[in-house]
Write a structure and sequence with these properties.
237 residues; mainly alpha; 78% helix
Length: 237
């Protein structure tokens, strides 16, 4: 009996030593990890404060890759979003924003992140230097990202009515809606010139249904619509 008790005691003693050693090793490794993480994070902040944005972007990227899901991840993502926006890496910005929204739905940075998302979408529907050189007309390009920006802006107004970004976004919203109208107008003209009258009529009706202002373009659309109806022997409106 005493021998059995002795063996049990020995097993418990060995287990305690093993667990304690493992705990001490973990604590030491974790302490080193935390110190290294803090040092690298502060180093990235230093580059950012010195406006060495390329180096700061590199450092924050390394932090994001080498220290996944750490205590600074939320802020690291904010810096990465901002720095990639500065570098015109707009598609990367949208990817990072999607990840941020999934991870930090209630973040205090959320209104800023959604604002950056909107101006990034606007930027994706803006000519770059090469497109300006070749005088690319944006009115002939699909306003996919502008429509996304409009949707996000209207959502932003509902969610953050007192935001400091509201005034700027209201101005941009007017421009964005004009951009959509100009594209629709060009599509209607194109279809009309190609004698695609049914498609022209459908597009005209959609345009007029969404048009809240009677202007010179409204008159032109009505004229195209009536002429298209006449071509198909349908009564004009």
């Amino acid at each position: 009996m005493n021998k059995k008790i002795f063996l049990i005691s020995m097993i418990i003693f060995i287990l305690l030593i093993t667990v304690n050693c493992k705990y001490n090793t973990y604590t030491h490794e974790q302490k080193y990890f935390d110190t290294s993480l803090k040092y690298d994070y502060l180093n990235a902040i230093r580059y950012f404060s010195e406006k060495k944005y390329d180096q700061a972007l590199l450092e924050f990227n390394n932090l994001y890759i080498n220290y996944p899901r750490n205590i600074y991840t939320e802020k690291i993502l904010v810096f990465l979003i901002y720095l990639n926006y500065l570098g015109h890496n707009f598609l990367v910005v949208l990817e990072l924003i999607d990840e941020f929204i999934q991870l930090y739905d209630y973040s205090p940075f959320m209104s800023y992140i959604l604002y950056v998302k909107i101006i990034t979408e606007i930027s994706l529907d803006t000519n770059n230097q090469i497109q300006n050189l070749f005088k690319i007309n944006r009115n002939d390009c699909n306003p996919f990202y502008t429509q996304l920006a409009i949707n996000d802006t209207e959502m932003f107004f509902k969610k953050y009515p007192d935001s400091i970004y509201i005034h700027f976004l209201k101005k941009r919203l007017t421009y964005m809606k004009k951009r959509i109208k100009n594209f629709d107008l060009n599509i209607i003209k194109f279809l009309y010139q190609k004698k695609k009258y049914i498609s022209t009529i459908n597009r005209c009706l959609i345009y007029l249904n969404n048009d809240l202002h009677n202007d010179i373009n409204t008159c032109l659309i009505k004229k195209i619509l009536n002429d298209s109806l006449n071509k198909l022997n349908i009564n004009s409106i």
